[in-house]
Amino acid sequence: MRALGGALLGRRARLRWVHLILGGALLMPYWLLGTLVVAPFRNGDGLFAGDLVVQFGAYGVALPLAAVSALFPLARPMSVAVARTLCGVPAERFADGPARSWAARVRTAGWFTLHTGVGGLVAGMSLAVPPFAVTLMALPFSAALRRSAAAGFWSLDQRWLVYGGVPAGLATLAALAAVAAGAGALLAQQAPPLLGPTPADRLVAAERRAADLAVRNRLARELHDSVGHALSAVTLQAGAARTVLDSDPEFVREALTAIEETTRRTVGELDAVLGLLRQGEDDGELPGRPGLEALEALLAAAGRPVSLTVRGGDPARVPEAVSREAYRIVQEGLTNAARHAGDEPVSLTIERDEETLEIVMENPLPARPPVARPGGGRGLRGVGERARLLGGTAGARPVDGVWRLEARLPAGARGEGVR
User: Fold this and answer.
1) CATH homologous superfamily of domain 205-416?
2) Spatial CB neighbours of 157, under 8 Å, sequence gap ≥ 6
3) Where does the sequence pass through the membrane (predicted)?
């Protein structure tokens, strides 16, 4: 009995009942318009003549009108907002935003017609049945009521109602609650297929998630390359300064200056990336990102000897996007060498022709394989991703006792469209 009472009058059932009555209220203007159409065909009876033919005829006219009005795109978010609150259906099963496709609009129209149609019937019952039930339950206790016009209106002059009025009235109220609960459950069952996302909505949501993931991955690469390189360079400079602290104060001063410049530059880049994360959006550009024009400063702060060989044209005179990604690739190569090759020298060759920019970095392999970091590094994978996004290639492998990082990037018009 307790479970049955909860199903008929529990919080969820009451909310759904309110939802149905709201549907009846939404149907009312359409129903009034329908009576203007139907009433002239019934000897000109007015709107409130009580003629069931007029009332149900107006109901039949109102439903198509409601369906047509729900074809507007904004009908779906309005219906979803109400159903999400009152139907007891998980919020993630509803679609977000206006209905853009005709399939979504037709589904919304179907939902609105079902909501207003069933809601109109339940709302009408909710207005008529409680007075009827109260009259039934009061009949055994009032002879005057049994002789009144109210009893005559309800056709309640049967003598047996004197003894069965209370049970009949309670049964009528219980039936109303059962009908409302059943209608509410029907709407809750139909809400996901009618107000849920269409295949087009799912495709848009998937594209949005893919775009968000791409932005997060790009920001993660920026943080990895910038902060990772800075920490490696600072570690090398600090270690070298500690070694010659007493014997070469001038070198220590230079190392501390390099550490200061590296950290200041990295903090600026970190602020830019974190600013984008705080805004929750990305316009395709990361302000303050350095390119190959800052290559000399990068090599000077590397904390190790780096020999640079440039062939062909000026490597800085490539498309801006290529210059920025090339800088990051060199930065990751220096970071990787700092982690795995100790103080060994690094050679960097940059060759540019009309179509490509080729980067080759080499450093001696360590005597012992480096200890893998927990979770593994993602820097070389990020190098490959950067090159592929530009339409180029990149890879790293041991060759003749050295570790070689190679990248080929488009330096012509193709790279200019990448941001």
Assistant:
1) Histidine kinase-like ATPase, C-terminal domain (3.30.565.10)
2) 146, 151
3) 20-41, 53-75, 117-141, 161-188
